[in-house]
Amino acid sequence: MSLLVLGGTGTLGRQIVRRALDEGFQVKCLVRNFRKAVFLKEWGAELIYGDLKLPETIPMTLLGITALIDASTARPSDLYNANQIDLYGKYVLIEAAKKAKIKRYVFFSVLNAHKYPEIPLMLLKLKIEQSLSNSGLDYTIFPLVGFFQGLVTQYALPILEKQPVWITADTTSIAYIDTQDVAKFAIKSLSIPSTRKQVLPLLGNYPWNSLEIIELCEKLSGQRSNVSKVPIYLLRLVRQLTKVFQWTWNISERLAFTEVTARGDNFDTSMEKIYDLFQINRNEVMLLEVYLQEYFTKIMKKLKELNYVNNQDIEKIDF
Ligand SMILES: NC(=O)c1ccc[n+]([C@@H]2O[C@H](COP(=O)([O-])OP(=O)(O)OC[C@H]3O[C@@H](n4cnc5c(N)ncnc54)[C@H](OP(=O)(O)O)[C@@H]3O)[C@@H](O)[C@H]2O)c1
Fold it and tell me: Measured from the CB, is residue 258 less than 6 Å from ligand 1?
């Protein structure tokens, strides 16, 4: 099967490419910057130029493709408005997939998006879900919450570097998941006919709140944290200010998203049916405790090897 992956340089996309190559797929990656994507080529993927902001570049990337996994999304640093990438770019991609008679189309949405249509990023995801369900394509949509990998920059690194850990509230619980597990489900879905035209949420085994994660990081790293709380009103104020300038729209949209995760909702749902459908045992899914334990063990070992004394530049260490 010839597979096209979008977002292969991203946090989730790279795990999808890795998994697909390991399982013997012929993998093409739509990338907008070849230099940044060189590691994907070294792994064995073929790189093909495409940019969701440039609709004319999309159709050619689908030539000879059987299935497509879209793990792309606008970077907060991108100067363009997320609409151009996460809405219009994706509309073009869906139309091109129809014309190219793509047999399977995998898309990642956000869990509970229907509850927050007033949040721009959620609305974009809902519109693409709608477009896929009307497209006639054999799609699979995986709504997600957050990734373990994001918790490293949000909590683990600041704690190691003795920097403040910014949290918005301690009541929201999120069942974070490892991107390697998401990749496992996404690739497996391609060979399970009953995942066609389905929306299948993917979550980790336990919903964690901020204070529990901080406590876990403190225990595993042996360091005390320095927690700073951001009041919701301040988050809203910054969001309103960043909305004023076109070049900060992306930041404003991300802040709106952060605000949702600070409202005290529960981002969790039962995965039992999904484990059954994929014939995956819940014990096979990575636990946050184990993931962070491995992370801290690796980083502490590396720091020892480097005879690390200043507790600085941890971010620059390459794993
Ligand atoms: N991260 C989360 O916690 C989370 C939660 C829920 C859902 N999701 C969804 O999961 C998926 C993967 O998220 P992620 O966090 O792994 O994303 P990410 O790390 O931010 O990566 C985004 C990817 O999209 C690519 N991209 C951006 N603009 C593009 C354009 N104009 N044309 C082509 N490619 C472009 C980027 O390429 P460059 O390297 O060239 O920038 C990168 O490969 C997304 O659909 C996201 O909405 C993520």
Answer: no
Handedness of CA 121, 122, 125, 131 (dihedral sign): negative
Nearest CA-CA partner of 106 in 188, 19, 222:
188
Whether residue 113 has its Cβ less than 6 Å from ligand 1: no
Task: Grade residue 174 by pLDDT with cuts at 50, 70 and 90.
Answer: confident
Residue nearest to atom 41 of ligand 1 (CA): 75
CB of 93 within 6 A of ligand 1: the answer is: no
pTM: 0.89
CATH number, position 22: 3.40.50.720
CA of 150 to the centre of ligand 1 (A): 13
- Closest-CA residue, ligand 1 atom 3, reads 146
65 inside domain: yes
- Give the start-end residues of each E strand in the chain: 2-6, 26-31, 46-49, 67-70, 104-110, 139-144, 164-167, 173-174, 198-199, 226-229, 266-267
Give the position, in ligand 1's atom list, of the atom nearest the Cα of 51.
32
Is residue 26 one of the residues assigned to a domain? Answer: yes
76 lines ligand 1 (CB under 6 A): no
Q: Quote the ligand 1 centre to 143 CA distance (angstroms).
A: 14
| DSSP string of 223-289, one letter each residue | ---EEEEPPHHHHHHHHHHHHHSGGGHHHHHHHHHHHHTTS--EE----HHHHHHHT--GGGSPPHH
Q: Report the separation in Å between the CA atom of 251 and the middle of ligand 1, taken as the mean of its atom positions.
A: 15
Q: Within 10 Å of residue 189's Cβ, how many Cβ atoms? A: 22
pLDDT tens across 276-310, in order? 999 999 999 999 999 999 999 998 888 777 765 55
Total of domains in the chain: 1
Domain limits for position 54: 2-146+177-204+268-287
